[in-house]
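FAQ: What does a multi-protein file look like?

Like this. Sequence, then tokens, then the next protein.
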Amino acid sequence: MKKLIVASTSTVHGSGYLEYILPTLEQHFKGISEILFIPFARPGGISYDGYTEKAKEAFEKIGIAVKGIHEFDSAKDAVKQAQGIFTGGGNTFELVNQLYKHDIVEVLKEVLQSGTPYLGTSAGSNICGVTMMNTNDMPIVYPPSFDTLGMIAFNINAHYLDPDPSSTHMGETRETRIKEYHVFNETAVLGLREGSWLEVSGESIVLKGELTARLFKPSTEPIELESNTEVSI
């Protein structure tokens, strides 16, 4: 049975890395002594070792060790043997590119379907959807495919931002871009605001955090989903 935390972000304003969600992660990874960290998204070009160290420092607070996937001889074996998995944020194009390069997309699907607990933040959450096509990131590399893990039947737009009515910026809003996506695509998109996350247990998907999320479907007006309610597409 799937067991996932799909979070909009790793860090909320005024809080340390993963700090806001650590109580939830302590329960999510209960009984697990070590998790596998996938640092491929590399925010700001940080090294794999540096990024893994950041994850280690956070998980130490709840008594869980962390080892980076790049520290193993075989990425596939690392995924198969992992007690739990965390994929961090950064650039989604590079993350997906590396997942395909290491040939671990299918094995990730298999272990997550079988119940290996998973945490994704930002880019690591984008890959839980049907495709990565609703990322906000620059296309710095060209992955072999935009298809991702499909653990949920819709796409994620992490760090979703509402228009600022006082802003003089005349560029496209996040909502406008998602509507452009729906001119050519049918997959629903969930805009996850900062500090919000999804708890996935089997086929149940529940929105958590203090804020609502914005659900977009083709040819319909977007709707606000309240926290602690089931997300149904």
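And here is the next protein:
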Amino acid sequence: MRQHSGIGVLDKAVSVLHAVADQPCNLTDLCARTGLPRATAHRLAVGLEVHRLIARDPDGLWRPGPSLAELAAKADDPLLDAAAAVLPRLREITGESVQLYRVEGSFRVCVASVEPPTGLRDTVLVGARLPLTAGSGAKVLLAWADPALVRAVLPAAAFGERVLAEVRKRGWAQSAAEREAGVASVAAPVRDAADTVIAAISVSGPIDRMGRRPGSRWAADLLAAADAISKRL
């Protein structure tokens, strides 16, 4: 769930940013997603356009603007710093695609990704927003998520609370052809110094190579990689 600062105009502006990040939208869509009055939503969107935090596409729909990427490029992210040496090593061990996901709203966002140099791969680009309703990464993030988010997502998910309980018990999750046909994956939680789950590290690839139970093959290596990132934080 999104946090509120108590500063009304700031919280409303951030809600506009999240709304256009979920999917490009017009003013009517923006009002529906944010719950803001039409005049307020329009005023905030135009102001964010001035600062290039949102922009209009050729169809006139608002979408994230270039200033967001410029600011993100300058940000110091301890999670990415900690994962920088671990993810390539995990790719070498598995020979498969490796990703790192965070929760943003009701989505999981890929914040880091490394690919094998050759062969079939499951390419997930950095910045890709995937639903929390399918895939091993989604299961891991939901297993330790805020209960309100879990209640909101589970009705549409390909799995239920029993699966999340199993993930919490064994410490990792797997999936086969759940998010995308022909793709299997296994994921584990990354924890900060307070033992809070802040991300999910995932290995994914073709079912033909990964198998329908990829956890039996790669869970131990994935847990070791997750622990290595956590220790670096």
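Q: Is there any per-entry metadata?
A: Some entries carry free-text notes. For the entry above: The CA atoms of residues 86 and 228 lie 7 Å apart.
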